[in-house]
């Protein structure tokens, strides 16, 4: 049994025992040992068998579908935070959170504006919907001075794999390509059925031999920071320390910041 399976089973059982039949819209008939829902009652409300509920509460490696998780969430009267945790434990993306925000939150835009070093926002598709002036100066030729209304935002993977200038601009381009594809796969694993995600991946596979060769490898790594070296057309060799921040209230977006690399660390 995996830890997540045990945690998922314990979570469902705990909330089943906390949910009364009246809360679930059922009539409580007969004597009950506990005030919570019986397994067969939760099974009926969720469209599964009583045996299925028993097995999942025991921590068996069952893979509940998204519709089943949705019905479990409603039957157990879960809050939004509890529902999100349920989907997280099951390793599924909650469809209620699937629609990415149409615009970058004002707080993130303000943060970009006050940062003096290159910084940009990455959305779920690794589009860059917003960036600051320092990022536009650093990524000249890729990021314009400001976003162009009604136009598709720049995409980090399209830049890396489809822009010929990226090969000279990004130091050790081949290694960075391999790393970013593995990070991208880890980042978007729950969204691979998204039509827009599928379109981006298909486009990159058809237009970049490098991406087409790396994507089938199934490599997965967590996004990491660290030293980033660029060969800037005006400033020559430029070294930054990259950090990626995940805003708690905007989980589909990341704030990427390039900070000056400490010279002492270069020795």
UniProtKB/TrEMBL annotation:
Gene3D superfamilies from the UniProt entry: 3.30.450.180, lambda repressor-like DNA-binding domains
Listed InterPro entries: Cro/C1-type_HTH (IPR001387), Lambda_DNA-bd_dom_sf (IPR010982), MLTR_LBD (IPR041413)
Annotated protein name in UniProt: Transcriptional regulator
Naturally occurring in which organism (per UniProt): Acidithiobacillus thiooxidans ATCC 19377
CDD domains: HTH_XRE (cd00093)
GO MF term set: DNA binding
Start and end residues of each HTH cro/C1-type domain: 11-83
